[in-house]
Design brief:
Number of helices: 20
CATH architecture of the largest domain: 2-Layer Sandwich
CATH class of the largest domain: Alpha Beta
Structural class: alpha+beta
Distance between the termini: 61 Å
Largest sheet: 7 strands, mixed
Number of strands: 21
Bound molecules: adenosine monophosphate
Number of domains: 3
Mean pLDDT: 92
CATH superfamily of the largest domain: DNA ligase/mRNA capping enzyme
Shape: globular
CATH topology of the largest domain: D-amino Acid Aminotransferase, Chain A, domain 1
């Protein structure tokens, strides 16, 4: 078992380092030292996760629970803890200070009774796990007790990182890229091999353990597994799709359906559905489960597709309608009957025990066609998306116009020989759609309104994402153009994410929700930490289907900014 001290020491050092190379080296050192059973846990911990993202498991520890545990462990009142957090701006630092003070007072006591207990990484995990799993009467108390135990058994330095981990915000700026390279370094394997193993497992913890136990060979033998969703392949917008098609010579053109992404895992009669964010949405969509069970002929398969909510004429309904179906918890059956779904399948990643992502698109497509039987059942339908293989730009345009006519978004232009790259956005999948530039930005701040709107959050600070440092960088505020009704809905959603207030009356918001924002122009600005600001930003809608880290990146902002310059 590895001591949690090792982990805390690494975090402390990384916090002082600014360069990626040095950070990677320190993470590699840590991973190299940890026992193989604890490697998956450590790998997730260092990325601020307690459970792997694909598992859908939530830790569900809020600040009030955490403060209560710290209060019980230290004897300091919750009020005083809150005040300290307001000053330090960090529960981690506050926990360290509080426990240091407590230990100072107990110094003679502990010198008499010996050293503090040595907390192991797995023990921290087990306590978190218990806290996350209890439910029902008395569960709050059990959660607090487990956290209190951790605070009681840790040094002030360890407590700092336990507190931050409990909120899944370690603040050491270590993301997937660093961990991937650290695994490669620690176990002397090529980063590409680690990357591929990550693509098929979607779990760097599993990858780290395999690398330690069996090196490259073990990594290469890892494959996709049913009911462990993989990241979805993403598409890129291209400023000149025609030129891209010309360079591909022949491209695979499909409609870009206006619905919601769904990843389907079929294992015999059991069907599990995951959203684009890999949430398990099976129970909200029994009609989809049924149609897949009946018309997908493979014993075991993982399929990729777009679910579209349609009206009685088979025309797509507004995007929000399908999202409502995906998130529905009650009255699921009635909704299924009144809003039928058209399922358009466009890829297959796994078939009867075989991982298919390294096959070219056209071969995967053959496998897909062979196992799906197109059908319409009670206005619900299932089909493999039609595909046209062509290099003829006029024909592409015809397909594009037909897609728009049918109420869809445009077309996807795919490279016929390309592999399926989970989580990757690249030129192998391009989208062609009418240009209305919008950005998906994370809400990171909010202010209360005035007068009639005093009980509503009236203005929202939005931010792009910088994956290298895992930071959200502010780009401006939106608020105008929202009706009271919309503000009320947003307030209900965002108020629970509120944190501390700054001097300007802006409350910090935990970045969980994305807004789609239209704007006139991106300008350089010293007022926001992204270095950019939006001119005339307008709220278009929320994007609950996307994870916060899927907010547009600083890189994309820079690209849109320089494209704008070229047009001027
Ligand atoms: P965007 O969300 O604008 O980045 O566009 C990519 C999304 O288009 C994918 O995540 C899918 O949900 C959706 N989509 C619709 N039709 C297709 C298709 N034929 N192939 C791939 N993605 C599609």
């Amino acid at each position: 078992m590895t001591s949690f001290k090792e982990f805390a020491e690494t975090c402390k050092e990384i916090e002082k380092i600014s360069g990626t190379i040095e950070t990677t080296r320190r993470v590699a050192e840590l991973l190299g030292k940890v026992d193989v059973e604890e490697l998956p846990l450590t790998t997730h911990f260092i990325m601020s996760e307690v459970f792997p993202a694909w598992s859908g498991k939530q830790l569900g520890i809020g600040t009030s629970l955490l403060y209560m545990a710290l209060s019980r462990a230290s004897g300091v009142s919750v009020k005083s803890i809150e005040a300290l957090v307001r000053t330090t701006g960090d529960i981690g630092e506050s926990s360290l200070l509080i426990l240091k003070e407590k230990r100072k007072n107990q110094a003679t006591f502990s010198s008499f009774f010996g050293e503090e207990p040595d907390l192991s990484i797995s023990e921290v995990y087990e306590r978190f796990k218990t806290a996350s799993e209890v439910s029902g009467k008395g569960s709050q108390n059990i959660k607090v007790k487990n956290l209190q135990y951790l605070f009681n058994s840790s040094s002030p330095r360890e407590a700092k990182y336990i507190a931050r981990l409990a909120l899944e915000e370690l603040r050491v700026g270590v993301g997937e890229g660093v961990v991937r390279d650290a695994i490669a370094k620690a176990f002397s394997v090529k980063p590409e091999v680690v990357e591929h193993a990550y693509m098929v497992t979607n779990d760097l913890g599993i990858v780290a353990a395999a690398a330690k136990e069996g090196g490259a060979k073990a990594l290469e033998s890892l494959g996709i597994k049913l009911n462990r969703p993989i990241k979805v392949m993403l598409s890129q917008i291209s400023p000149d799709v025609d030129a891209e098609i010309r360079s591909m010579k022949v491209a695979a053109i499909e409609w870009k359906f206006d619905g919601a992404r769904v990843q389907i895992h079929k294992n015999g009669d059991s069907v599990t559905l995951f959203s684009r964010r890999l949430e398990n949405v099976t129970s909200s969509l029994p009609d989809l489960v049924e149609i897949v069970r009946k018309h997908v002929k493979a014993e075991a398969a993982i399929l990729d597709g777009e679910a579209v909510a349609v009206d009685e004429n088979g025309k797509p309904r507004a995007f929000q309608e399908i999202l409502k179906r995906f998130r529905r918890k009650y009255g699921v059956e009635e909704k299924a009957a009144s809003i039928p779904i058209q399922l358009n399948l466009f890829d297959i990643m796994y078939l009867n025990g075989r991982t298919l992502i390294d096959l070219p698109l056209l071969e995967r497509r053959k496998a897909l066609e062979a196992c799906v039987e197109s059908s319409v059942d009670n206005s619900h339908s299932i089909a493999v998306a039609e595909q046209v293989l062509t290099g003829d730009l006029e024909l592409v345009n015809k397909v594009y116009q037909a897609a728009l006519q049918a109420g869809h978004e445009g077309v996807m232009v795919k490279k016929p020989e390309s592999f399926y790259s989970p989580g990757k956005r690249g030129k192998n999948w391009l989208k062609k759609k009418p240009l209305m530039e919008t950005l998906d930005l994370a809400v990171v701040g909010a202010e209360w309104g005035f007068g009639r709107r005093a009980t509503l959050l009236g203005s929202y600070t939005v931010a792009c994402y910088e994956p290298k440092t895992s930071r959200f960088l502010r780009m401006g505020k939106v608020g105008t153009g929202l009706s009271d009704e919309q503000l009320r809905e947003l307030t209900d959603m965002i108020a629970p994410l509120m944190g501390e207030e700054d001097l300007g009356g802006v409350f910090a918001i935990k970045p969980e929700l994305l807004f789609e924002i239209a704007f006139e122009e991106i300008q350089k600005s010293p007022n926001y930490d992204s270095g950019y600001a939006l001119r005339f930003p307008r709220f278009i809608g929320i994007r609950p289907d996307k994870a916060p880290e899927e907010a547009d990146s600083l890189q994309r902002i820079e690209r849109v900014y320089s494209q704008q310059r070229k047009k001027l």
